[in-house]
Amino acid sequence: MGDLDQRFFLVTGASSGIGLATVDGLLARGAAVTIATRSEERTKPVLEALAATHEGAQLFWLRLDLADLRQVQRAAEGYLATGRRLDVLVNNAGVAGGRGLTADGFDVTVGTDHLGPYLFTKLLLPKLRESSQGRVVNVASQAHYSTKAIDWAALRTPARGARESLVRYSIAKLMNVLHAKELARRLADTAVTTYALHPGVVASDVWREVPWPIRPVIKLFMISNEEGAKTSLYCATAPELAKVSGRYYEKCQEKRASRLSDDPELAKKLFEWSEESIAAALAARAA
Questions:
Q1: Do residues 198 and 9 make contact, with C-beta atoms less than 8 angstroms apart?
Q2: How deeply is 42 buried, as exposed, middle or buried, from its count of CB atoms within 10 A (0-12, 13-18, 19+)?
Q3: pLDDT in tens, 36-73
Q4: Buried (b) or exposed (e) across 160-192, using 16+ Cβ within 10 A?
Q5: Cα–Cα distance measured from residue 11 to residue 9, given in angstroms and rounded to the nearest whole number
Q6: What is the predicted pLDDT for the residue at 201?
Q7: 206 or 235: which carries more pLDDT confidence?
Q8: % of the chain with per-residue pLDDT over 90
Q9: 9 DSSP β-pair partners
Q10: Cα–Cα distance between 198 and 255 in angstroms, integer?
Q11: Which of 172, 254, 265, 283 has the greatest number of CB atoms lying within 10 Å of its CB?
């Protein structure tokens, strides 16, 4: 037993990288953890290794593909059907440098890093609100500082080249911060708190879409997944953050996010765009 005994966590994108290090840290403290990933085959040996390391751990798997909104719906429904509590949702999964469109016709980076997590969070909020101290943790990035504006129309077109794909990544990470801030405002009268964070520049699988000649070089200058998971664990578990919401963190300390992320009108616009885009996409696929 540990200090997180009887606390239930769901971590997305946890078959490798920061997500896996986060799960390992939670299990070591007695938490019950659901790992949400795309591939059962790839995740099975990860689950076996974690179970061997943490004997008696409450460890579960959930299929989740954030680039497919219908599958996001099914994943949320699947979790709710288990009847398990949910105290903390860690929106960790993401991709950087991706090109192309999601199954629903959105830029793959924005679709995977924002729209999928946005819908997943929305669908799981009723369960989080049942917790005595629910939390939503968005793993964002310092890349959000570089975004000066959002071209909404462009988000339905694929990125043209590596440079533009990284611009889309910075936009998606700004959306993660805006999402946490606006959600905090909307949940102000509840026991659910929200956080966005920069984990550090980590040598994780998030860079899997960056072209091969560049990827191994940039990883030489990055920190480990275990080091990167520290701020995620802090935001997900620190008792001193129980009454704090909508803030941005780096190296386990609060930090001022970008000026653009503090724009409440932009945050409202993001929620409106997300709701309208998701509804239209799901309706089109159901037709």
A1: no
A2: exposed
A3: 999 999 999 999 999 999 999 999 999 999 999 999 99
A4: eeeeebbbbbbbbbbbbbbbbbbbbeebeeeeb
A5: 6
A6: 67
A7: 235
A8: 82
A9: 33, 88
A10: 10
A11: 172
Domains of the chain in sequence order: 8-286 (3.40.50.720)
**Catalytic residue, candidates 79, 145, 169, 195:** 169
The enclosing H or E element of 250 equals: strand 247-250
Q: How confident is the model at residue 218 (pLDDT cuts 50, 70, 90)?
A: very low
Helix locations, the chain, DSSP H: 17-27, 40-53, 69-82, 108-110, 116-129, 161-186, 215-219, 225-237, 264-286
CA 225 to chain centre: 15
Torsion angle, CA of 245/246/251/252, rounded to 10 degrees?
0
SS3 per-residue string spanning 57-74: CCEEEEECCCCCHHHHHH
CB distance 102 to 67 below 8 Å: yes
Whether residue 173 contacts residue 110, with contact meaning beta carbons closer than 8 Å, is answered with no
User: What pLDDT, on a 0 to 100 scale, did the predictor assign at position 228?
Assistant: 79
Looking at per-residue pLDDT, the higher value among 149 and 205 belongs to: 149
pTM of the full predicted structure?
0.92
pLDDT digits (tens, 9 = 90+) for 253-267: 999 999 999 999 999
Per-residue pLDDT at 221 = 43
Alpha-carbon distance of 282 to 148, in angstroms, equals: 30
C-alpha span between 215 and 96 (Å, rounded) = 11
Average pLDDT in the chain: 91
